[in-house]
Predict the structure.
Amino acid sequence: MSSRWRPEVIDALAGVAGAQQVLTSPEDMYVYGYDGTAMVHHSPRAVVDITDAAQIAPIMRLANELDFKVIPRGAGSGLSGGSVPVDDAVVLVLTRLNRILEIDEANLTAMVEPGVITQTLHTEVESRGLFYPPDPGSGKVSTLGGNIAENSGGLRGLKYGLTKDYVMGIEVVLPNGEVIWSGNKCVKDAAGYDLKHLFIGSEGTLGIFTKALLKLIPKPAAKKTMVAYFANMRGAAEAVSAIIARRVIPATVEFLDQVTMECVEAYAKLGLNTSYGALLLIEVDGHPGQVADEAETVMAVCRECGALEFSLAKDEAEALRMAAARRVAFTALARVKPTTILEDATVPRSALPEMIDIIEACARKYNLRVGTFGHAGDGNLHPTFLTDERDHDEIARVEQAFTEMFDGALRLGGTISGEHGTGTVKMPFLARQYNDATLTMMRTIKQVLDPRDVLNPGKVLLPGRRFGERVMEGMPV
């Protein structure tokens, strides 16, 4: 084990976690300089593979005493640079904390460690007739701790909500090494401040999760999966509004544009009809009678709104094949060009057609290829630019396009991020969404909890900005 960087820090980390769990060689650490974000990399000074949650608090105390930074990391599947290291940073890898500690069927809760893979929890609770609804697209690899840190959404967000809606309690190691617990199994709890929601979605900047108490619900008794094709994205978006206007709230309403369909079909050979301009993937679930009625309504509305072709899955195998079209979208797009930049501008559902127009106009204006997919039911779009980071002129045009798209989303009452977080890549845009007083409050919370700025610094809020000064118009800084 090399000790070229600050031997006293390396020795202290080894004293807490064991020498074999501390990595310092560039080759061993290289992968920990990335997350799922394109073009963002910075190597850490050391990596600690945490094997016991009790190791985290003493490491945080060491960070304050010896003045180094700590970056908590799960699967590294984030898409905003939130777990990418900064200078003099030690990465704490939490994936070995992967136990489901308890499933309480009487109270419909699960107690988990932060490194549990999302799909692992899905499989376990569904085998018991229970259901954990949050369903991020990265669920096969993402960890529950990362989901909580980012307040992940997913394909079932329209009907069932986000991760925050299913966290009943969390254990958190604070930046100073103290440990707190907020929440319990009670359905009602009005005692004191609801601190857990301060930490949910804080992107690892305010504390490190070591346990989470999650709410479960009964598994839906039935579901039906459908695919509808439209001439263009605007028609698909209008159909979504019409479905909900009929008082049907599907579990899933996902969309793919023609570029994305073409890439998915080339990759996965699912039998998609790529001659159409857009596809809607719709799933309704619940009581069998209700599901049958809602499926009929959805089919009727889609036809009224100009659907050119409609398919209803005959069985579970076909339903999984249909759903795969959406789940492999990012992977399929990423194969086309060397660099794939995916975003998540989000608008109120009623503004979805206008936001789609903005994205398509930006692609034409800057001569860029974009594939757009996402969660049509909750207005969460994933415009994905297919580019090459070695082409500096094209990357500059991509940045201009994103700036105009985010401004467009904000004009429509939306947000710069629906589920990926701010991280590093969206820090310049945060001051476009919030005023000075709001940004100052965010910074004050960070300062109170982490006065030495040791925990995941340089994320969410622009470094060095004491107040929320306006970002200059034009290119992000």
Residues 292 and 386 are 40 Å apart (CA to CA).
